[in-house]
Amino acid sequence: MNSQTYDLVVIGTGPAGISAALEAATHNLKVLVLDEQPRPGGQIYRNVTAASAFVADLLGPDYRHGKGLTERLGHSNVEVRFGATVWDVARDLTVTAQIEGQSFQVRPQQLIAATGAMERATPIPGWTLPGVLNAGAAQIALKSSGAIPSGRVVLAGGGPLLLLVACQLLDAGVSVVGVVETSPSSNRWRALRYLPAALASSAYLAKGARMLWRLRQAEVPMFSAATSLRVEGGERARALSFKSNGIEHCVDADVVLLHHGVVPNTQMSRLLRVEHDWDDEQMAWKPHVDAWGETSLPGFRIAGDGAGIAGALAAESLGVLSALGAARSLGRLSAADGERRAESVRRSLAKQLRIRPFLDSLYRPPRWLSNPPNETVVCRCEEVTAGRIREMAGLGCQGPNQTKFFSRCGMGPCQGRMCGLTVTQILCTELGRSPRQVGAYHIRSPLKPVTLGSIAALSKDATNTTTKPLGTT
Amino acid sequence: MFRAMLLPADQQRRLIELVVDGQHVPAREGETLAIALLNAGVVHFRHTPVSGQPRAPLCLMGVCFDCLVEVDGKQNVQSCMVQVCEGMQVRLPNGARSVGAAV
Is A151 exposed, middle or buried (CB count within 10 Å of its CB: 0-12, 13-18, 19+)? Predict the structure, then answer.
């Protein structure tokens, strides 16, 4: 593989990655796709090729849609390597990845990262206790193993996924003892102005209404505009306490599922030091991309939720557009043909994006989420509290990289994935500055832990003049 | 904390056995180690290097790094990113990894 040249490398086999790879193949680009999971689908369609019929039924038609995508990938002649963890990308687009503990490099002409999103952190007191998971994690357990929480579950946060997971768990026979929504009531008024556009996506709205109805019908206790959330417990989560409509509540539970939307996973884009914008509606960083998905680094494109949360269907369109961009850049597609092909894709994309302003507004995270109480652990890896971050701002730290030097916040194994947004936002509040001014963590390779032995395999790679099969030394 | 849903017999995956801190633990082929451990009743996956606090998975998708365990002698492995296999030797860590501890 190391002695072959690729026109394009695509990282990720979620809807954006698969769509990009398939489109690129139709323009006769030589494509290599890498995914760290053993099977395609990303997170949204996780395990769709191997999920049991029982589980697939439970998850519904939106999940099963992924099967068509993954099947098309399987039937295509696109080269895919699973179990491949990309741990470095250089500015010249050289990708360094590892399979079974052996690293290798590929330098394509064009690179599309379709690495998607991750759940926003919900830093509340007690969130580090065993038994606290993201709502998406419970969905992953369901998708990948048909596994469900075994005791009482309380869900807390905001966003369509919160309600969806609550309903899916109900359908799976889980004891859902409460849904605690944190979206402030003012969100509803702010979202109203986007309602006309949202009504054009009535199917989507109907889905939401059905989920609410399902939860009410099952008599799941529902709470709104909750504040002062805290997970109670000593060695594990025992309950969730909160305030709602002026009343203090404490819901006993064995598992607490938190969710405040998803945000782009910017590890790779930060590593490559491309331009990022702060999206104040989504309260997250987005790598800046053009109409063909290209970042400020020529040849490096980001497709799908990794460039801004737009959903699974939009990810397919964005994947196609980035592949068209790559084909155009390589001279395999004329500008005219590219525009022609892109026209219908952009129309689909526009339709898929119609619901977003309404959703983003309705489920905008509450202000208190980005300003947790002092006792709250913000950096889970190094156990640095919000209070410590505020202390450092008071001592003169101007940004997350400085607070990192002084406190180790952001130096742990997760490399700032869990704490990055929160630290930036706390500093914004303390310093009275914008996220753009405060900045984000500088990210360095390796993106995932690698052994010296794995890195050493690179030199064997470089001195080999013949292609060796993967997995041999 | 978790359990496998009851699936029709023809949709259940093959049962295999892991060894977790010396105990034999059942798992299903094709699932991740993190989920197998959750299903087996493991509540504390590890204790943190900084203060010894107990931790368990948060994200199950490889970004939180709270599911770190020792697998077949390799330390600090994200159990949510590893597929179970017959006879896998798992140890639940206490604190930071140690040099030369691989057995």
Answer: middle
DSSP 8-state class, residue A36: S
Phi-psi category of residue A60: left, alpha or beta, with phi > 0 → left and psi -120 to 50 → alpha:
left
Q: Say how far apart CA A265 and CA A36 lie, in whole Å.
A: 15
Dihedral of alpha carbons A336, A337, A340, A341, sign = negative
pTM to 2 decimal places: 0.95
CA distance A182 to A243: 10
Name the token pair of B10.
């023809």
User: How many beta-carbon contacts under 8 Å exist across A and B?
Assistant: 124
**Interacting residues of A60 by C-beta distance below 8 A, sequence separation 6+:** none
B47 inside 8 A of chain A by CB: no
Strand blocks (E) in A271-339: 276-279, 284-287, 300-302
Backbone angles phi and psi of A72, in degrees to 5: -60, -40
Q: What is the pLDDT of residues A353-406, one digit of tens each?
A: 999 999 999 999 999 999 999 999 999 999 999 999 999 999 999 999 999 999
**Which one, of A20, A30, A75, lies nearest residue A49 by Cα?**
A75
For chain A, the C-alpha Rg in angstroms (whole number) is 22
Q: Rounded CA gap, A152 and A251, in Å?
A: 10
Residue A54: is it exposed, middle or buried by C-beta count within 10 angstroms (0-12/13-18/19+)?
Answer: middle
**Structure-block tokens of residue A96:** 């360094």
What element of type H or E holds A9? strand A8-11
Distance from CA of B61 to the nearest CA of A (A): 7
CB atoms under 10 Å from CB of A185, counted, come to 9
Query: Are the C-beta atoms of residues A34 and A97 closer than 8 Å to each other?
Result: yes
Q: Report whether A9 contacts A112 (CB < 8 A).
A: yes
Do A147 and B3 lie within an 8 Å CB cutoff?
yes
Nearest residue to A112 via CA among A4, A2, A32: A32
Q: Residue A144: how many CB atoms within 10 A of its CB?
A: 27
Chain B residues in contact with A38 by the CB 8 A cut-off are 83
Over residues B9-20, mean pLDDT? 94
User: To which residue do tokens 């219908």 refer?
Assistant: A344
- Cβ-nearest to A54 among B11, B28, B56: B11
- Rounded to 10°, the helix A202-217/A160-171 angle is 50
Output the CA–CA distances (angstroms, integers) from residue A272 to A95, A267, A420, A472, B34, in the order listed.
11, 9, 17, 31, 31
Nearest CB partner across the interface for A414, out of B12, B60, B64: B64
pLDDT in tens, A262-309: 999 999 999 999 999 999 999 999 999 999 999 999 999 999 999 999
ipTM: 0.96
Tell me phi and psi for residue A217, to 5 degrees: -60, -35
Residue/partner pairs of A327-332 with CB below 8 Å, 24 or more apart? A327/A23, A327/A24, A327/A27, A327/A29, A328/A292, A329/A109, A329/A110, A329/A298, A329/A299, A330/A7, A330/A8, A330/A29, A330/A109, A330/A110, A332/A7, A332/A27, A332/A28, A332/A29
Within an 8 Å CB–CB cutoff, is residue B11 touching chain A?
A: yes
